[in-house]
Amino acid sequence: MILYILHQSCVADSTLIFNVLSFGAKPNGVIDSTQAFLDLSFEGVIGVSIIGDALDATLWACKLAGSTDCPSGGATSLSFTNSKNININGLIGVKVNAAGNSPNIDGIHVQLSRNVAIFNTSIKTGDDCVSIGPGTKELWIEQITCGPGHGISIGNLAKDLEEEGVQNVTVKNAIFKGTQNGLRIKSWARPRNGFVQGAYFLDVVMFNVQNPIVIDQNYCPQNINCPAQVMKIRITM
Protein backbone atom coordinates (compact mmCIF):
# COMPACT_ATOMS: atom_id res chain seq x y z
CA MET A 1 0.00 0.00 0.00
CA ILE A 2 1.21 3.48 -0.86
CA LEU A 3 -0.65 6.38 0.70
CA TYR A 4 -0.07 10.02 -0.11
CA ILE A 5 -1.54 12.90 1.85
CA LEU A 6 -1.86 16.20 -0.03
CA HIS A 7 -2.48 19.38 1.90
CA GLN A 8 -3.00 22.63 0.06
CA SER A 9 -2.12 25.68 2.11
CA CYS A 10 -4.56 28.58 1.87
CA VAL A 11 -1.92 31.14 2.80
CA ALA A 12 0.85 30.26 0.40
CA ASP A 13 -1.43 28.46 -2.10
CA SER A 14 1.10 25.65 -2.24
CA THR A 15 0.74 21.90 -1.89
CA LEU A 16 2.48 19.81 0.73
CA ILE A 17 2.83 16.07 0.11
CA PHE A 18 3.43 13.59 2.93
CA ASN A 19 4.38 10.06 1.91
CA VAL A 20 3.82 7.50 4.65
CA LEU A 21 6.78 5.51 3.31
CA SER A 22 8.92 8.27 4.80
CA PHE A 23 7.46 7.46 8.21
CA GLY A 24 8.35 3.78 8.15
CA ALA A 25 5.47 2.19 6.24
CA LYS A 26 6.41 -0.74 3.97
CA PRO A 27 4.25 -1.52 0.89
CA ASN A 28 5.08 -5.24 0.80
CA GLY A 29 2.07 -6.63 2.66
CA VAL A 30 4.38 -8.46 5.05
CA ILE A 31 5.88 -5.94 7.46
CA ASP A 32 3.49 -4.40 9.98
CA SER A 33 3.21 -0.69 9.12
CA THR A 34 0.72 0.14 11.86
CA GLN A 35 3.01 2.54 13.68
CA ALA A 36 3.25 4.81 10.65
CA PHE A 37 -0.52 5.31 10.73
CA LEU A 38 -1.21 5.50 14.45
CA ASP A 39 -2.95 8.67 15.60
CA LEU A 40 -3.12 10.06 12.07
CA SER A 41 -5.53 12.96 12.46
CA PHE A 42 -6.41 16.26 10.81
CA GLU A 43 -7.80 19.29 12.62
CA GLY A 44 -8.79 22.67 11.25
CA VAL A 45 -7.58 21.92 7.73
CA ILE A 46 -9.11 22.87 4.38
CA GLY A 47 -8.49 20.93 1.17
CA VAL A 48 -7.05 17.48 1.96
CA SER A 49 -6.92 14.50 -0.41
CA ILE A 50 -5.99 10.97 0.65
CA ILE A 51 -4.93 8.76 -2.26
CA GLY A 52 -4.18 5.08 -1.92
CA ASP A 53 -5.83 1.69 -2.43
CA ALA A 54 -5.02 -0.10 0.86
CA LEU A 55 -4.41 -3.34 -1.05
CA ASP A 56 -1.95 -5.92 0.27
CA ALA A 57 -1.80 -4.26 3.69
CA THR A 58 -0.94 -6.48 6.63
CA LEU A 59 -4.00 -5.42 8.58
CA TRP A 60 -6.50 -6.35 5.88
CA ALA A 61 -4.79 -9.66 5.12
CA CYS A 62 -4.92 -10.53 8.81
CA LYS A 63 -8.60 -9.66 9.11
CA LEU A 64 -9.50 -11.63 5.98
CA ALA A 65 -7.72 -14.63 7.45
CA GLY A 66 -9.99 -14.45 10.49
CA SER A 67 -7.16 -13.97 12.95
CA THR A 68 -7.90 -12.58 16.43
CA ASP A 69 -4.38 -11.19 16.79
CA CYS A 70 -4.35 -8.53 14.06
CA PRO A 71 -2.34 -5.30 14.39
CA SER A 72 -4.09 -2.56 16.32
CA GLY A 73 -5.05 0.76 14.77
CA GLY A 74 -6.19 0.50 11.18
CA ALA A 75 -8.94 2.60 9.66
CA THR A 76 -10.23 3.72 13.05
CA SER A 77 -7.00 5.65 13.59
CA LEU A 78 -7.93 8.03 10.76
CA SER A 79 -10.07 10.90 12.02
CA PHE A 80 -11.12 14.35 10.83
CA THR A 81 -12.05 17.13 13.26
CA ASN A 82 -13.35 20.61 12.34
CA SER A 83 -12.17 20.12 8.75
CA LYS A 84 -13.51 20.94 5.30
CA ASN A 85 -13.19 19.59 1.74
CA ILE A 86 -11.99 16.10 2.67
CA ASN A 87 -11.69 13.66 -0.23
CA ILE A 88 -10.89 9.96 0.21
CA ASN A 89 -10.38 8.41 -3.22
CA GLY A 90 -9.11 5.10 -4.55
CA LEU A 91 -9.86 3.09 -1.41
CA ILE A 92 -10.88 -0.31 -2.78
CA GLY A 93 -10.90 -3.84 -1.49
CA VAL A 94 -12.25 -2.77 1.93
CA LYS A 95 -15.43 -4.54 3.02
CA VAL A 96 -17.76 -3.65 5.88
CA ASN A 97 -18.75 -7.19 6.75
CA ALA A 98 -19.93 -8.45 10.15
CA ALA A 99 -22.26 -11.19 11.35
CA GLY A 100 -25.95 -10.37 11.35
CA ASN A 101 -26.14 -10.89 15.12
CA SER A 102 -23.12 -8.76 16.00
CA PRO A 103 -24.21 -6.08 18.51
CA ASN A 104 -23.93 -2.30 18.10
CA ILE A 105 -21.81 -2.34 14.97
CA ASP A 106 -22.88 0.39 12.56
CA GLY A 107 -21.39 0.25 9.10
CA ILE A 108 -21.10 4.03 8.60
CA HIS A 109 -22.07 6.71 11.11
CA VAL A 110 -22.58 10.33 10.03
CA GLN A 111 -23.17 13.04 12.63
CA LEU A 112 -22.65 16.82 12.93
CA SER A 113 -21.56 16.84 9.29
CA ARG A 114 -22.58 18.67 6.14
CA ASN A 115 -22.36 17.75 2.43
CA VAL A 116 -21.35 14.10 2.88
CA ALA A 117 -21.79 11.75 -0.10
CA ILE A 118 -21.64 7.94 0.04
CA PHE A 119 -21.58 6.08 -3.29
CA ASN A 120 -21.30 2.46 -4.50
CA THR A 121 -21.11 0.75 -1.13
CA SER A 122 -22.05 -2.69 0.19
CA ILE A 123 -22.43 -3.13 3.95
CA LYS A 124 -23.13 -6.27 5.96
CA THR A 125 -23.42 -5.79 9.70
CA GLY A 126 -25.45 -6.51 12.83
CA ASP A 127 -26.67 -2.97 13.35
CA ASP A 128 -27.43 0.02 11.14
CA CYS A 129 -26.07 -0.11 7.61
CA VAL A 130 -25.82 3.68 7.76
CA SER A 131 -26.60 5.55 10.97
CA ILE A 132 -27.52 9.23 10.59
CA GLY A 133 -27.16 11.25 13.78
CA PRO A 134 -28.07 14.78 14.89
CA GLY A 135 -26.56 17.70 13.02
CA THR A 136 -26.40 15.90 9.67
CA LYS A 137 -27.25 18.14 6.72
CA GLU A 138 -27.12 17.61 2.95
CA LEU A 139 -26.34 13.87 3.06
CA TRP A 140 -26.51 11.95 -0.24
CA ILE A 141 -26.45 8.13 -0.31
CA GLU A 142 -26.61 6.37 -3.69
CA GLN A 143 -26.01 2.87 -5.05
CA ILE A 144 -25.82 1.18 -1.67
CA THR A 145 -26.58 -2.44 -0.76
CA CYS A 146 -27.43 -3.31 2.85
CA GLY A 147 -27.91 -6.69 4.47
CA PRO A 148 -27.89 -8.21 6.93
CA GLY A 149 -28.40 -5.49 9.51
CA HIS A 150 -30.94 -2.91 10.64
CA GLY A 151 -31.14 -0.90 7.43
CA ILE A 152 -30.59 2.86 7.09
CA SER A 153 -31.62 4.77 10.21
CA ILE A 154 -32.03 8.43 11.06
CA GLY A 155 -31.42 8.53 14.81
CA ASN A 156 -31.57 7.86 17.48
CA LEU A 157 -32.72 11.42 18.09
CA ALA A 158 -33.99 13.32 21.17
CA LYS A 159 -31.37 11.71 23.35
CA ASP A 160 -29.82 15.03 24.41
CA LEU A 161 -31.68 18.13 25.59
CA GLU A 162 -30.01 20.47 23.11
CA GLU A 163 -29.72 18.72 19.78
CA GLU A 164 -29.32 19.80 16.16
CA GLY A 165 -31.76 18.52 13.59
CA VAL A 166 -31.30 16.32 10.53
CA GLN A 167 -31.94 18.08 7.25
CA ASN A 168 -31.98 17.13 3.55
CA VAL A 169 -31.09 13.44 3.47
CA THR A 170 -31.42 11.59 0.15
CA VAL A 171 -31.20 7.82 -0.26
CA LYS A 172 -31.31 6.74 -3.92
CA ASN A 173 -30.96 3.38 -5.68
CA ALA A 174 -30.68 1.35 -2.48
CA ILE A 175 -31.09 -2.42 -2.11
CA PHE A 176 -31.93 -4.11 1.20
CA LYS A 177 -31.52 -7.87 1.54
CA GLY A 178 -32.58 -9.76 4.66
CA THR A 179 -32.49 -6.73 6.95
CA GLN A 180 -34.55 -6.19 10.08
CA ASN A 181 -35.61 -2.75 8.84
CA GLY A 182 -35.44 -0.90 5.58
CA LEU A 183 -35.73 2.84 6.16
CA ARG A 184 -36.15 3.97 9.76
CA ILE A 185 -36.49 7.17 11.79
CA LYS A 186 -36.12 6.62 15.53
CA SER A 187 -36.35 9.07 18.42
CA TRP A 188 -36.86 8.99 22.17
CA ALA A 189 -40.25 10.16 23.52
CA ARG A 190 -38.87 13.38 24.98
CA PRO A 191 -39.61 17.05 24.27
CA ARG A 192 -36.54 18.19 22.36
CA ASN A 193 -35.67 20.83 19.80
CA GLY A 194 -34.38 18.30 17.25
CA PHE A 195 -36.15 17.65 13.96
CA VAL A 196 -36.06 15.72 10.69
CA GLN A 197 -36.72 17.79 7.60
CA GLY A 198 -36.40 16.87 3.93
CA ALA A 199 -35.80 13.10 3.95
CA TYR A 200 -36.08 11.60 0.45
CA PHE A 201 -36.04 7.90 -0.41
CA LEU A 202 -35.95 7.13 -4.14
CA ASP A 203 -35.80 3.85 -6.11
CA VAL A 204 -35.45 1.56 -3.11
CA VAL A 205 -35.74 -2.23 -3.54
CA MET A 206 -36.22 -4.60 -0.59
CA PHE A 207 -35.98 -8.38 -0.36
CA ASN A 208 -37.04 -10.30 2.76
CA VAL A 209 -37.11 -7.17 4.94
CA GLN A 210 -39.07 -7.52 8.20
CA ASN A 211 -40.04 -3.84 8.58
CA PRO A 212 -39.72 -1.94 5.28
CA ILE A 213 -40.51 1.54 6.67
CA VAL A 214 -40.43 2.46 10.37
CA ILE A 215 -41.07 5.77 12.14
CA ASP A 216 -40.60 5.09 15.85
CA GLN A 217 -40.96 8.07 18.19
CA ASN A 218 -41.01 5.90 21.29
CA TYR A 219 -37.54 4.47 20.81
CA CYS A 220 -36.27 2.64 23.89
CA PRO A 221 -34.18 -0.38 22.88
CA GLN A 222 -33.82 -1.96 26.33
CA ASN A 223 -37.36 -1.12 27.51
CA ILE A 224 -35.95 0.10 30.83
CA ASN A 225 -36.90 3.51 32.32
CA CYS A 226 -38.40 4.51 29.00
CA PRO A 227 -39.58 8.14 28.73
CA ALA A 228 -43.24 8.66 27.94
CA GLN A 229 -43.64 12.36 27.17
CA VAL A 230 -46.21 13.38 24.59
CA MET A 231 -44.17 16.09 22.85
CA LYS A 232 -41.74 14.64 20.34
CA ILE A 233 -39.43 15.82 17.57
CA ARG A 234 -40.87 17.29 14.37
CA ILE A 235 -40.68 15.13 11.25
CA THR A 236 -41.42 16.61 7.82
CA MET A 237 -40.65 14.68 4.67
Automatic annotation (TrEMBL):
MF-aspect GO terms = polygalacturonase activity
Q: Does the keyword Metal-binding apply?
A: no
Q: Which InterPro entries match?
A: Glyco_hydro_28, Pectin_lyas_fold, Pectin_lyase_fold/virulence
The protein's matches in Pfam families, at most eight in alphabetical order, are given as:
Glyco_hydro_28
Q: Does the keyword Cell membrane apply?
A: no
Report the record's Gene Ontology biological process terms: carbohydrate metabolic process; cell wall organization
Give the species: Prunus dulcis
Q: Which family does it belong to?
A: Belongs to the glycosyl hydrolase 28 family.
Keyword annotations of the record: Cell wall, Cell wall biogenesis/degradation, Glycosidase, Hydrolase, Secreted
Top-level division of the source organism's lineage: Eukaryota
PANTHER family in the cross-refs? PTHR31375
Q: Lineage of this protein's species?
A: Eukaryota, Viridiplantae, Streptophyta, Embryophyta, Tracheophyta
* Name of this chain's protein: Pectin lyase-like superfamily protein
Subcellular locations according to the entry: Secreted, Cell wall
